[in-house]
């Protein structure tokens, strides 16, 4: 066996450090036929660090994983006691706090007097710092760009969403208390609190990720935490086309609708990508327009310069100081907006938004939770009624029909992909009914491939929307073939 293979054997050994060094000596003797003391010294110096790192041994034997976990618990507790109130000291910079914690942690680990390899020591310090300053064992998921959502059902059950699919991980928190500490750290950074008197919190991390936390007595199985990660890079229309979420023909029609100042509602279920699509549509707004965005938690990443971003505020501990989305929508009307973009309508603000659309603020955009374009209309009607105004249903429907021009519906399919399944024109009222006409629908008839991915794509219905006459008046050109009329006649 040559020297390199003998060294590979050393890397795979589970023996003690002296045995590993003996194996290295034997490997050298086999290759050279001799072993001088000076040569052995050089080998030892050059390879001692490698042997310790490769074999991951203490001077006597490797520390068992159970002993390492116990050491981590003791060290974490001792560190909390040493830090005291400094861990929540807002006057400390983040980098300064990290360095302070790291220095204190080294002292704590040294006081334990447990022999550790350099690899074990680094791993221990990293995990404790994640627990104390980060998000504990789920920190690695938050750092992973391929993961879009982290769901902690209880301290020993963590799911993640990757590529639209949910996966159970083997990651666990040490206890309910460890999970509770992470939750409290998250909410304290945004000036909120969570306890038995206020057992649920919606918050936003510094990077824009949305957080929901709920604890007992409302959460029966222990604290639960859901983090929807904020994408660092905004998804453009071209990227959505590349992913198959949109077709080029759809993108051309939507661009023309935004330029023509159509009022557009993006509908879809939870986690379907409504905000992502809304963000992509906003890229079509001309740079000369003044845009006011209104959101519960800031997520939109508009590329234009002339943008005013507003964010609602929850009530404080005394139940005062709340600023709702509805208040911000009303205030935005006095800010001379060319476009109003509401991240999501979910209450009485829907009435104010529809009134804005009907009183000269054309080109506004928003999203709503719904399972289809028809359901989106019904949802808007319900939200208007939540405003507390005693309006007849017909008057509400007339408001919706005259304000909204287009509904873009996005769905998350069984294969985990997000697809725009409908682009639907709101044509007006016929009797008591709001009439809709699909311009594009998703074709499910193509079936799925061997991996379960849908082969279908959005196809035009062959019906030209009425609002295209407005494109002609404004000089906005749209290719006639995008509506598929030629294809329909050719069948």
UniProtKB/TrEMBL annotation:
Residues 134-412 form the Bacterial type II secretion system protein E domain. Transmembrane segments: none annotated. It holds the Pfam family T2SSE. Belongs to the GSP E family. This is Type II secretion system protein E.
